[in-house]
Amino acid sequence: MVHATINHSSVTTFILVGFSEYPHLQPPLFLMVMAIYSVTLVGNIGIIVVRRINPNLHTPMYFFLSHLSFLDICYSSVFTPKLMEILVAEHRTISLKGCMAQFFFGCACVITEMFMLAVMAYDRFVAVCNPLLYTVAMSHQLCVLLVAGSYVWGGLCAVILTHTLLELSYCGPGIINHFGCEYSAIISVACSDSSFSQMACLVISVLSEGSSLLITMASYVFIVITIIKMPSKGGLQKAFSTCTSHLIAISIFHGIILLLYCVPNANSSRLLVKVATVLYTVLIPMLNPLIYSLRNKDVKETVKRLICTKLHSRSI
């Protein structure tokens, strides 16, 4: 229970403030989040299904994309249902164990997605710079290894950070000024020394963000150099279209994370933190399938074929 009258009591339940400061915005926000979450689930499950039924999509790029869709489903499902609950419920609480579980899965998904996007950048680099050796260079074994490595690293980082948070004591009244268990929000209610946890978070954040961005930027530097050297406009256009969707996804994902954690004084505004967290927990998982499917002929043709088949079977 939360002992609100004693400032330094140990807590086992947290109160999530969410967007309770703006009661008139909560009903429309609930409807908007529910609509986005529905589109997210349909879009990402659709990408996975389309990739499985179309043999033309059994390539490394779509193998990575299906895992990106799986991560988006998981990540969105970690935070969004709780957000919808606290937008309509009077009692906005979460247990300490539930809070730590939410943080663990959210952290694991974010870091894994970070490296999955870097792996996809490397895949585009091989496809553009070594097209003749692409199938050999991006073997199924290597693809599985890259995906497994991303999951292992994401899980390992989440275990370390969650362990450091579990070692802390949390003071009453245990009010978290957020809609979920985001790292800075959890630290704000800790009443023991959190310097080690913050140092671990800084090291892991810099290492993960820095290395994933380095892989991505290095891949695209070589891609740009290769594109510039291309004599034919057709080859240039094809190479450019191959990378555009991925570049858009990377820009949105890393842009919001950098805005949230690297812009000076960003953490001083809790509203900015909450809005930015909504963007990368609710909006990004919806945008990824739209970005990739709307710009891809194979995906669009497969979806059209599925719709036509269903309509034809119904008419019969």
Structural notes for this entry:
With 316 residues, the protein is mainly alpha-helical. It has a single domain (13-315), classed as Rhodopsin 7-helix transmembrane proteins (Rhopdopsin 7-helix transmembrane proteins), CATH 1.20.1070.10. 75% of the residues lie in helices and 3% in strands. The chain contains ten helices and three strands, in the order E-H-H-E-H-H-H-E-H-H-H-H-H. It has helices at 26-53, 60-88, 96-129, 134-137, 140-166, 183-187, 195-229, 233-262, 270-294, 297-315; strands at residues 13-16, 93-95, 175-176. Strands 2-1-3 form a three-stranded mixed beta sheet. Helix 3 (96-129) runs parallel beside helix 7 (195-229). The protein is globular and about 65 Å long. It starts with 12 loop residues before the first strand and ends with a helix. 34% of the residues are buried.
Quick synopsis:
The protein has 316 residues and is mainly α.
Number of strands: 3
Order of helices and strands: EHHEHHHEHHHHH
Q: Counting H and I runs of at least 4 residues, what is the number of helices?
A: 10
CATH fold topology: Rhopdopsin 7-helix transmembrane proteins
In the CATH hierarchy, what is the class? Mainly Alpha
- What's the alpha carbon Rg, rounded to whole Å? 22 Å
Name the CATH superfamily classification: Rhodopsin 7-helix transmembrane proteins
How many separate structural domains?
1
Largest sheet: 3 strands, mixed
User: Given the C-alpha coordinates, what overall shape results?
Assistant: globular
